[in-house]
Model the fold of this input.
Amino acid sequence: MTEREMTDVGSFTIPFNQPVLYSKSCRDYNPIHLSALAGKYLFGMGGKIAHGMTSVALVAEMSRREERTRKMAEIWWSTQEPWSAEVSFKRPVVLPSTLSLRISREEGKKIHFEVVGSGRGENKIYTEGWVQSM
Done:
């Protein structure tokens, strides 16, 4: 994605046990999501990692709670008009992790977002994408 001015919205934490709960709903029982040993030693991921769609789901949920993301929420949670999203997963989220959500100003109907690390990985983008009404 091109350089754009991003606004910090807030942060969220994905706990160590979260993939077990998510696996039950999506039926993705990949060992990298359920075992720190498998994630680290078999797949070289640094430990147990979150499902990619977990961060996207948390972005959608956070958009409902934050005033600064009202436009994003209106698109994502609309039952009246179709919408689309495009997401790129840039790096694995090793658990537990605290991440931050940043969004850009609107460009037409598109709203861009980034999920970035908090703390040590502060400037690393883990997930980025956009959501738009059609």
